[in-house]
Amino acid sequence: MDACTQALHLLEQEVHGIRARLDAQLPYALQMPMVPAANVSDAAMAAIEQHMQAARRQLRLRITHFLRRLRQMQPTPRNVADAQHRYALLKLYFHAALTHFEIFAEVLTQRSQHGTGVWLSGLDVAAQDGLRQPGVLHDVPPVICYVERGHGGAIRRARTRLPGGGNNPVSVIRMPRERMVGTGIAASLFHEVGHQAAALLGLVNAFKRALQQRFGVAQPPPVWQAWDRWISEILADLWAVSRVGIAATCGLMSVVSLPRAFVLRINLDDPHPAPWIRVKLSLAMGNALYPHPQWARLAQIWELQYPRSQMTARQQQTFAGLDQSIGEFIHMLLAVHPPALEGRSLGSVLRLPDRHPQALLARWHQVRPRPQQMLAETPTLAFAVLGQARFSGLLPASQELQVIAELLQRWALAGYLPWRAGSKELSVVLNQRRPLAAAFA
């Protein structure tokens, strides 16, 4: 066998190996050892499996085409080089398919961890609830969550390009392990949900159009250039405040409570606002949506924690300019009319009457005897009520986490057992028959 013939033969065998590896890849449903309550939703699993099946089918077609062409080639040096080039491209497609598999496998494998898997399933339900809003978002994608070490959360949005090609069939939210406590869960979760909502509604582009209409062909002032640079993260923060009220801002304050050098650093190459002004912005957005003295009190606390006297002269000047423009910026932001909202303003659809602090406190007093049961039917509202009660001094942090843990279990089990999340039957299953009111006294 001459060298050219052997080269083509080796390539053929390598491609047969790729096809064998592809054929050996089982559906996730046959590989993931998890308790049923920890499963992702049927919609999410179906979307992932359909995506992977389509990717494998496309790759098999490429393999068949390559082998057919290879067998028609004459063993010449030029054809060997051409075959090698085509083989290298085929390997890239194969590696992309494996990358897609590993992305979802990493998320799904955590469902087998004791305790963690059920919590993640409950977070899936809460995230999906935080994305829904009747009359605003239609045909929302499935959402799945996982945890990872690190300080910040992240999202791989649905319908965005995956590494190597193809669109992501589901939203994948990464939750930092250190945020899996009380208010921090809600702040991180609904901020990432906000990124998906903003993409579905086209909010970033809507704001940029409004900014262009405001300043025309002239370049916006530096302060507005900063708001424009940070708008994606600001919209995610706005969505979180809209969903869970002051829980979002308190969670944000916890995330960015870092050494002063980090909190006061302004970097326009970073899509996140400087932490000091980001908290002030969250407070102002909360007050714009749900006016109440609590936002001013918390703003005063933030300025005590990171006083302006510790800023350099340049930082004081920059932050003062940003701070003074917050009111005008938020007024403009809430007045934006994205096409997806069909003539309604952003502020009108994000302002939820049952998330006003007084409404949340009234709700807390109603559910206080059995919050884990009485809040179970409304996941996003549950986080808002608990966060408000904690901020108002009515719910100790340790008890808040206990209630949230039980709620996560309920949301996970309600997708598996034939009972609603707030049913008495589920209380019996979880042995939650004793009221918790005494713990909040």
UniProtKB/TrEMBL annotation:
Superkingdom, natural source: Bacteria
Natural source organism: Silvimonas iriomotensis
The protein's name in its UniProt record: Uncharacterized protein
